[in-house]
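for the recovery benchmark. tokens below, seq after
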């Protein structure tokens, strides 16, 4: 618990320093605490420390944790930030508030059809393979405008913006390059008539570069919760 509190205050200071450096108001950046591989108890600790926005990568782990923390559901905004297969869209459409990892129109169409009528529209971002890595998911930048227009027209979704996981880079100047490219892509979409307000970019290692380039949501895991032993949880409870 105290570790999460200490880590969280370090991360919040990093964000406010980066905002000051960029001449941006500190409340223009939302901290998304990425709790993947950590148990529901760690989320509760972060909640008690003040976090209200949580991001999960793996669908089943997200659903389990949301169920475990049902008593906090009304106060937490849950974001899915990891890969989404089309056979998993229904429980996601029913359970979360945001999906950052929409990387094809078919997924968006299913999420829109399956979003329950009693819930507000699902907030979504398109994931962009901004560094052009062969192994990474995400739309190629050139594909984004057409998909964005189609997604923006779906009735039960609200397209908010773009998300990316840039290739790691050693220094701030190099880290800023892909973040800048994502921002320019968002600016271009808005110039074409969309009204997008979200740039989901920046993680533990590069949040300063992301804030410098206009990130509105930074997704921070290890700097808050500590290192992850393995990419797949051994026991999420
Ligand atoms: C794990 C993950 C993060 C957080 O990464 P850290 O380096 O632990 O801050 C952010 N975004 C996505 C999509 C992730 O999978």
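predicted aa per position
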């Amino acid at each position: 618990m105290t570790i999460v509190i200490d880590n969280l205050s370090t991360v919040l200071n990093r964000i406010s320093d980066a905002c000051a450096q960029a001449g941006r108001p500190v409340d223009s950046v939302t901290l998304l605490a990425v709790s993947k591989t950590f148990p529901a108890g760690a989320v509760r600790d972060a909640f008690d420390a003040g976090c209200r926005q949580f991001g999960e990568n793996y669908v089943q782990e997200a659903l389990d944790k949301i169920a475990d923390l049902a008593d906090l559901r009304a106060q937490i905004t849950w974001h899915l930030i990891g890969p989404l297969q089309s056979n998993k869209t229904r429980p996601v459409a029913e359970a979360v508030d945001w999906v950052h990892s929409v990387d094809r129109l078919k997924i968006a169409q299913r999420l829109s059809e399956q979003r329950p009528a009693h819930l507000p529209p699902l907030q979504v971002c398109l994931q962009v393979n901004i560094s052009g890595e062969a192994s990474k998911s995400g739309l190629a930048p050139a594909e984004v405008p057409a998909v964005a227009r189609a997604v923006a027209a779906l009735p039960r979704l609200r397209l908010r913006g773009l998300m990316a996981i840039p290739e790691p880079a050693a220094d701030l100047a190099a880290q800023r390059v892909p973040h800048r490219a994502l921002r320019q892509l968002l600016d271009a979409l808005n110039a074409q008539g969309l009204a997008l307000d979200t740039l989901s970019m920046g993680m533990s290692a590069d949040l300063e570069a992301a804030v410098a380039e206009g990130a509105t949501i930074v997704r921070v895991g290890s700097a808050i919760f500590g290192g992850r032993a393995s990419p797949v949880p051994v026991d999420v409870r």
